[in-house]
Design brief:
The chain is mainly alpha-helical and about 160 residues long. The protein is built from nine helices and no strands.
Length: about 160
Amino acid sequence: MLGIVIDGLCKAGNTQTAIEFLRAMEKRGSPCKPTAIIYSTIIDSLCKDKMVDEGLALLQEMIEKNILPNVVPYSCLIQGLCNLSRWKDVDNLYAEMKVYKIVPNVFTFNIVVDALCKEGHIEDAEEVAQIMIQLGQNPNLVMYNSLMDGYCLQR
C-alpha cells in the first residue's frame, strides 16, 4: 500500500509530498515499512527533479537503516549526476557500488556512455564500455548508438 501511494505521488510530480508521507508513516510506527523499492522510487523522482544531493542523502539513509540498495537507486543517481556533469560524483558512486558489491548493469553503463558522448568525452565513454566488457557484460544497441552519436559529434 505504501509503495503504491509513494509511486503515485512521485509520478504526479509530488516528490516532496511523497517524502513527507514516508516520514509521517515512519513517525506513526506504521506496520508498512519502507523497502528498497520505495526508496528507489523517491530517489528516481528526486533525480528527475534535479535534486540529486537529496537523492544521495536518501541513499545514505537507506543504508543506515540496513535497507540494502540494489543497482536501481545507484543507476537513478548516476543518471542525475551525469545530467549535471558531476563526473567526480559519478566516480565516487561507482566506487561505493564496488564496496557494496553492486555490479552496474547494462542500463547503468548506457547512462554513463551516453552522457559522456553527449559531452564530447568519447575516449572516456570507450573506457566505460571496456570496463563493462571486462565485467562480462555485452554492449547493446543503445550503447552502440550512443558511441556512434559521440563519434559523429566529434566531427
